[in-house]
Amino acid sequence: MRQPHRFSIGQNVVLTPIKYGAVAPAGTYIVVRLLPNDDLDREYRLKHQHDGHERVVRESQLRAGPASPFN
Question: What is the pTM of this model?
Answer without folding.
Answer: 0.79
